[in-house]
Amino acid sequence: MEPEIRNVSDTALLAAMHRAVETERPGGIFRDPYARRLAGERGERIYREWNAGAQRSWLWATRTWAFDQVITREVERGVDLVINLAAGLDARPYRMKLPPSLTWIEVDFPDIISYKQQLLRGETPSCRFEAVGFDLADEAGRPALLRRLAAHGTNALVISEGLIVYLTREQVVSLARDLAAEPALRRWATELGSPAMLKRAQASMNPVLAKAQAPLRFGPEEGPEFFRPLGWAPLMTESFLRAAARRKILPWPLRLMSLLPERKTWKPDAVWVGICLLGRDAP
Question: What is the pTM assigned to this prediction?
Answer without folding.
Answer: 0.93
